[in-house]
Amino acid sequence: MFSGKIPEGLRVLVFDEDPQYLSSLVEHLQEFQYKVTRCNEEEEAIYLLRTHMNKFDIAILEAQNPYGATFRLLSEIGSEMNIIIISKDDSVKSVINWIRNGACDYLIKPIRHEDLRLIFKHAVKKMEVRRSVAVVGEAEDKAAKQSSSYVGDFTMRNANERKRSMFLDGQASKEDQNHYRDSTTKKRRLAWVGNLHTKFVEAVDYFGIDKAVPKKILERMNIENITRDNVASHLQKFRMNLKKQNDQNKKNQSLTTSQRRMYSGEGSSEFHRGMNVQQILNPNLMTQFISPLGHHDDDGVSVSLSERNLVMNHQYHHTHQTSQFGCIDHNNPEESLAYNEEEAGVSKLICSFTQDSEEMSLLHLYEPVMETMMHVHEPSMVDIPSFPSPVTQSSFLNQAKTITMVDVCGQQQINNLIDGNNFLDNPRLGSAKRDQDGSRSGGPA
DNA sequence: CTCCCAATAT
DNA sequence: AATATTGGGA
């Protein structure tokens, strides 16, 4: 009954000690279109609020005792920040305690769905206060516009649309209807999160990808409050993703076969003869590249495994690949072409690896560089050709470690990757990753 | 008219 | 990037 009134995109930070409960909170909040930042530790939540208070509209913090760090935090910033306390302590005393200390709300566990949905009311209040203050002050107004997640902007936008279309078609009657509907039942953006998407996939699976059409999927999903159009839209995206995945697979396939051809000639056996490069690995870095699934498609790094080859995609421009280990052969068009028969772009054979001043060709770095006007490049590939024995999961990981070292990325990129994963430096990004960990069934994108 | 799909808009 | 809306065609 409140659908349509909830402002989208309010940024909510949420912490609960119980990871499972936290996950369910996150999921629900996402369903309500909130932008959720998940904190597994109280400490983390507090740190984020202390340092990035402006990045959140609302904080939902679980708290049990009124003597902890959260309580102190609340007394410090409670007046500037919408902090909602959740607790299983249902005593009046506790409620009063927290509210007095600055909490803008206190929700007793278990929390009702609807209460969670309605948390935005607090942000609204704050917003309105800010706006009235900002009539004169410019900075605050700017900030509010920038975040674009305040209700004021939300309504503003609708008002503009209304005005515009009224101007265009000159008809008031239709507009009046729309106007009425806007303020009551305007469709809100559906978030295909967790459960919803799972059911969708199940339905598609049930009919088969060619036979699955929006209406059938909708019926099979049997979920209230979603429309055929919702499903149709999602299906369109779903199909596109599949297609993209297929294309990607095909590409990898063709690359690995051409690689194999190359290495089947002389020198191929030298690649792994008596070589142990694992000591030079930094195992920590591997987590950037290797996921348990054997496929990591985050931030452009992906790894996939065929029976004999390990293929690693990465994203750097080839001219950046001046690692301390590798020597890059930019001047060998012939070899490049050998890799490239099936590719439209130019490719480079980049390889080699030096240890104790003795060169050993360990890896060939294959990079189909598709120059576009925007200087965007296709991923590069590293290939370990022809392992002598079938690759098991664990040896796969070991081999993968080898690869990283050989350093597809120089230290520069490694640092970048680490930075990219640094939650504190990049709260939004970090939260997205955590959210995935917590509430999504993983798998290749 | 309903539905599907692809393109386009937000 | 994700979702909604639109418009033509089956």
Automatic annotation (TrEMBL):
Residues 11-124 form the Response regulatory domain. InterPro entries: ARR-like (IPR045279), CheY-like_superfamily (IPR011006), Homeodomain-like_sf (IPR009057), Myb_dom_plants (IPR006447), Sig_transdc_resp-reg_receiver (IPR001789). GO terms for biological process: cytokinin-activated signaling pathway; phosphorelay signal transduction system. GO terms for molecular function: DNA binding. Keywords: Nucleus, Transcription, Transcription regulation, Two-component regulatory system. It is found in: Nucleus. This is Response regulatory domain-containing protein. GO terms for cellular component: nucleus. SMART domains: REC. The lineage of its organism: Eukaryota, Viridiplantae, Streptophyta, Embryophyta, Tracheophyta. Residues 243-269 are annotated as: Disordered.
